[in-house]
Design brief:
Blueprint: H1 2-26, E1 36-37, E2 44-47, H2 49-68, H3 71-93, E3 99-102, E4 108-109, E5 113-121, E6 128-134, E7 143-147, E8 152-160, E9 165-168, E10 172-176, E11 183-189, E12 194-198, E13 217-220, E14 227-233, E15 255-264, E16 267-270, H4 279-295, E17 300-304, E18 307-312, H5 315-326
Parallel strand pairs: 4-12, 16-17
Antiparallel strand pairs: 1-3, 2-11, 3-5, 5-8, 6-7, 6-10, 9-12, 10-11, 13-15, 14-15, 17-18
């Protein structure tokens, strides 16, 4: 208990100073489209807890060497101190001149995890080791990787989502404690990245009412091979393979097999079909209907106040409808 109290009292001023430094620096970080080159003046460095312990150990060794006038103790103390200074130089240089580029971010539904891709390029001829990406105050969840010489890697930052619409990535840090963990060097960056968050789909159970669209199927007489519809008299131009040869000996004239193609009627998903729900609940239910219609391979359209999306289907059509639902308020006056 005493050790914990002493440690807390000693480290609290250090945490306070670091928090003030972080706040001062982050207030000056500007959102950029990239690439962002980490200049030498943008890299900040402080000792880690192991670095402070290492410095206290060197101080104790120095006092012991002075007390006993031991030259070997002086030599070891200064050797370790020089090692610490070299370590500080390598830790700082491990971040200098790397480049940060914005990657892609696939759309997600509200409540899911958004994944922002960040590409790190190393233009130098020396590898960069143990580079870590993390959100502010989330260093324990940092993603660490090495970047080869004149190479690049892509790391993914995860961020929980709560609301639909555009979710900006925000400020993140790139840090390193290479090579010995005595110093923590970091820089702040904010790339022009954002993730489109779709409304959370409502639970299943409510189906589009008949007034919203036609849910049945119709049969047409377009050329097709879906469903046998009967026989008809032969007409000039009919393909020989369509003749019903089995009935030819029994009839005085040839007949042709006729097929009816099953035609799916369009389904309209309409905002006004859900008058008892509030805005967010309507958007969630419309999202559910879009997903269900796409899973059933139905042709569907979407009607929203101020916007109508013509019927269709497929991934591009689904994304267009979900995007309209996600940005619904943005289209309102």
């Amino acid at each position: 208990m005493r050790v914990w109290l002493i440690t807390t009292v000693l480290l609290k001023p250090l945490h306070f100073v670091q928090n003030r430094i972080d706040a001062w620096v982050m207030a000056r970080v500007r959102r950029q489209s990239g690439p962002i080159t980490v200049a030498r003046g943008r890299v900040y460095i402080l000792p880690t807890r192991f670095g402070y312990a290492f410095a206290l150990m060197l101080l104790a060794m120095l006092l012991g060497a002075m007390n006993y006038s031991n030259s070997m103790a002086f030599l070891l103390t200064f050797l370790l101190a020089g090692l610490g200074l070299v370590c500080m130089h390598h830790t700082h240089a491990n971040l200098v001149n790397i480049q940060l580029r914005a990657g892609s971010c696939a759309p997600v539904f509200a409540g899911d995890i958004a994944h922002f891709e960040v590409r790190i390029d190393n233009p130098s001829a020396h590898p960069r080791y143990a580079l870590a990406l993390s959100w502010p105050k989330a260093e324990k969840q940092a993603i660490t990787a090495d970047v080869p010489a004149r190479g690049s890697i892509t790391l993914v930052l995860s961020l929980p989502t709560q609301h639909r619409g555009w979710l900006p990535a925000g400020v993140f840090s790139v840090s390193t404690e290479y090579p010995l963990g005595l110093f923590h060097a970091w820089t702040w960056a904010e790339l022009d990245m954002r993730c489109l968050v779709f409304p959370r789909p409502a639970p299943g159970g409510i189906v589009p009412p008949a007034t919203v669209g036609t849910n049945g199927l119709a049969s047409g007489e377009r050329s097709g091979q879906d469903e046998f519809a009967g026989l008809r008299s032969y007409r000039r131009g009919d393909a020989p393979r369509s003749i019903h040869w089995k009935s030819f000996p029994k009839l005085t004239h040839p007949v042709v097999k006729q097929f009816a193609e099953t035609l799916e009627q369009e389904l309209w998903l309409d905002w006004v079909a859900l008058p008892w729900l509030d805005t967010e609940a309507r958007l969630s239910q419309l999202t559910r209907w879009v997903l269900d219609a796409e899973a059933a391979q139905r042709s569907y359209g979407l009607r929203l106040p101020g916007r109508v999306i013509a019927p269709g289907r497929g991934d591009a059509h689904r994304i267009e409808c979900l995007r309209a639902l996600a940005l619904y308020e943005d289209a309102q006056p």
